[in-house]
Amino acid sequence: MLRNIVAPLRGAVRRSAVVQCRAYATSGPYGNFYYDKLQIEKSKNLKQRPDENTLSFASVFTDHMLVCEWDAKHGWDVPKIVPYQKIPLEPSATVLHYGLECFEGMKAYTGQGKNKNEHYLFRPEKNIERMNRSCARIALPTMKVDEVVKSIAKLVDMDKEWIPKQKGYSMYIRPTMISTEPTLGVAPAKHAMFYTILAPSGPYFKNGFKPVKLYADGTYVRAFHGGTGEYKLGANYAATVMPAILAAQKGYDQILWLTGEDKQVTEVGAMNLLFYWVNKNGEKELATASLDDGLVLPGVTRASVLELCREWGIKVNECKLTIDDVVTAIKEKRMIEVFGAGTAAIVSPVNCIGYQGVDYEVPTPADGLTVKLFNHILSIQHGELGHEWCRNIKDYI
Q: How far apart are CA 136 and CA 20, in angstroms?
């Protein structure tokens, strides 16, 4: 009962703080970012595009980038598409010293079948809405969602020949916001830059699903109450690298992040984590960590998975989960499947969870929910199903 009262109050306090930050960040006489002011400078030195079959994840970048600068006095400057280039920064820029930075990850896809010459974006508005929340949390400027999405769509359209043509391949899109404020003082930025770069990427699973082993350990914490776990800040990722190395040395692929005295389950690596199980009442359900406590990122893929499962008649339970709940379900043979969900992989099956020196095996059925979700979402992304989540880039520009 107490948690039912405390969690909403905590959420209300968080939302109030973000609104206050957003009010600061959108101040300035010129206000916002407008697509109709977009300026374009085409590259005169086009790069050679890589062989699709050699693509890894986001290691080669396209010919152009989207850039727009902001200052607290004048608001947003005109957005520009320019040749891909290095960004000039003062050595004192606060992004370099205090991590005043946030980003998003989204993708563009080539259509398949009758739509093979078309190109699509998957729910880009959701990503920019989330980016605005991240910006507001660290007092960086926010933007008009539709204007930014249209500008990104134009960038993608200019470099659409870089979008791989095979199913499962994609163009990774990385919108980023940084503070360019030249000071060593810890204070709200008065100067900032938004930019977006593109990278063709191969499929996360080139040879079919490869289930992963998770290492559950509460020594290192990704998120905590009152922190920034629900925002996509670069600072959230830096501290995860070393623990991931330690997990790999123990023979695991990813960390299952725990937090609190009760070892609450939050995320896996950089993905949301979901459990398809038979609950204690004997009902099949898809359970995942609630967003109420601000401990997990509100993933776009997570939301898509939950919405689809509800449409399919699967019970969805967004709730508080502990590692003891998970281990007990495995021991009692109630665990059906476990998978991560994120932009890179869509879904990633889990076949083992290591905890307190014991490896608990998890089923990975070949015709299970994980596989069904992967195939269905991938078909939406490539324009095969005509779903509202997937729009042709021509519709934006």
A: 8
**Tens of pLDDT, residues 205-247:** 776 688 999 999 899 999 999 999 999 999 999 999 999 999 9
162 vs 156: CA distance, rounded Å: 9
Distance CA 216, CA 265 (A): 9
The secondary structure of the chain in percent helix, strand, coil, rounded to multiples of 5, reads: 30, 30, 40
244-253 as b/e, with b when 16 or more CB fall inside 10 Å? Answer: beebeeeebb
Per-residue CA distances from 196 to 27, 120, 142, 335 (Å): 23, 17, 15, 41
Contacts of 272 (CB under 8 A, 6+ apart): 288, 289, 296, 297, 299, 301, 302, 340, 341, 342
Share of the chain above pLDDT 90, in %: 85
Beta strand 212-217 pairing with 254-259: parallel
15-206: which CATH topology? Answer: D-amino Acid Aminotransferase; Chain A, domain 1 (3.30.470)
- Tokens, residue 82: 């320019």
**Residue 167: half-sphere exposure toward Cβ, Cα within 13 Å:** 16
Place of tokens 């979901």: 274
Q: Supply the pTM of this predicted model.
A: 0.92
Instruction: Say if CB 54 and CB 74 are below 8 A apart.
Output: no
- Every domain of the chain and the residues it spans: 15-206, 212-363
How far is residue 275 from each of residues 318, 348, 357, 362, 367, measured CA to CA in Å? 11, 12, 21, 10, 16
68, 78 Cβ separation under 8 angstroms: yes
| Residue 259: pLDDT over 60 | yes
Q: Which residue has the tokens 């986001």?
A: 58
How many residues make up the chain in this entry?
397
Cross-strand pairs, 75: 71
- Arithmetic mean of pLDDT, 123-127: 98
Q: What angle do CA 139, 272, 58 make, to 5 degrees?
A: 75
The token pair at 91 is 């050595």
Indicate the class that CATH gives domain 212-363.
alpha beta
> What does the angle CA 179 – CA 341 – CA 196 come to, to the nearest 5 degrees?
30
Alpha helices in the chain (DSSP H): 2-25, 94-98, 124-137, 145-158, 234-238, 241-249, 300-311, 323-331, 369-381
